[in-house]
Amino acid sequence: MADKYLLQVTAGPSYDPTSHQVVAVNSGTPTSIQSSLCSANVSVRIQNYRGLPRGSPSTSSYFSHPLHLHDQYSIGFSFVPHRSINGKSLVFGNDFDHPIRDRIPPGFNAAFQIVKWAIDPGLDGDVYADKPYLYGNALSSINVLSVGPKNSKSAEFGSEEEAIEEEAIEEGGFGGGQEVRLNLNIPDGAAARQNWFLGGHDRLENWQWEEGRLYKADFFNPYLDFNEFTLKLPGFSLKVLGYLGGEDYLRYVLKDKDTGEVFFVVVFTLLSKDQVDKDQTKTPQVSMSNTNSSGDPAGQPFEPKADDLD
Q1: Deepest in the core among 93, 172, 210, 301, taking most CB within 10 A?
Q2: Are 275 and 113 in contact (CB under 8 A)?
Q3: Is pLDDT of 167 > 50?
Q4: Model's pTM, two decimal places?
């Protein structure tokens, strides 16, 4: 059963788990990520959260916002690129380092078609590959996008003064960012912007994620219930608990699909509650970025048994 497990969320500038920090879910304090590619602040909110760190709030005021009353989770982030990247190249989505073809649940293909219809028509990938992936172009996959000023001071970005979580990011622009949208005739609304970028490859190519410009974004939906580990789509429900254990974490990544360069990753890992309790009695918690000797986040990933799904 789901109450035998704890969810841990980590984030960092690369796929290497030793570079990750444990995310303080629902805390109001973003996780700051610095790399040669970007400076970023990442916030994760999960409704009815029960996970690590112990004592994390079960919800966030974010879910009381009129735009998010029915959403189950959010990955909100602001970032300043350290080099410009063309709009056709930046993608957001999920990937794995190893095959999962033998773990794909019955009904996945039907679920994927519903996801493309209901959530992201631009989603593309290959879950049967040796390194499976599902990516969508960032300009059409991200639910909310706000364009900010250029020449943002990346050295100050991520400081304590800057790292204040917004209640909810709203579509638009500020500090000169609105002019960027107007010059490209990008529609004002979030859904209209997503559909507009799905409308032609030239629209993606005309966009530049500019070096030194601040962008704010939010990815959310009401379909993935982390409390019950269930994907709830229109007319379709799929329990995913048995497919998250062990190495089969759920990883989100913002990356350049052409070069393979990673801007940042956010990883959701399912841990055995019993194992976490044992580890905490053996080793004191020294920081939010604790990792074990194998480089995995503190607490061993757990492989759920079939009878745990009942």
Answers
A1: 93
A2: no
A3: yes
A4: 0.85
Cβ proximity of 185 and 51 under 8 Å:
no
Residue 255 tokens, joined: 């990356």
What's residue 22's pLDDT? 97
Give the C-alpha separation, 307 to 1, whole Å.
8
> Contacts from 284-292 at CB under 8 Å and sequence distance 24+?
288/21, 288/22, 288/24, 288/53, 289/20, 289/21, 289/22, 290/22, 291/17, 291/18, 291/20
pLDDT at 160 over 90: no
Please say whether the beta carbons of 266 and 9 come within 8 A. yes
Q: What backbone phi and psi angles, to 5 degrees, belong to 306?
A: -60, -40
Q: Specify which residues 239 forms β-bridges with.
A: 230
Q: Lay out the sheet containing 31-34: strands in order across.
A: 31-34, 38-46, 73-81, 215-221, 144-147, 172-173
At 20, list the tokens: 């990750």
pLDDT of residue 162 exceeding 70, the answer is no
Q: Is the pLDDT assigned to residue 60 strictly greater than 80?
A: yes
Enumerate residues 6+ apart whose C-beta is below 8 A from 307: none
Compute the average pLDDT of residues 176-196: 96
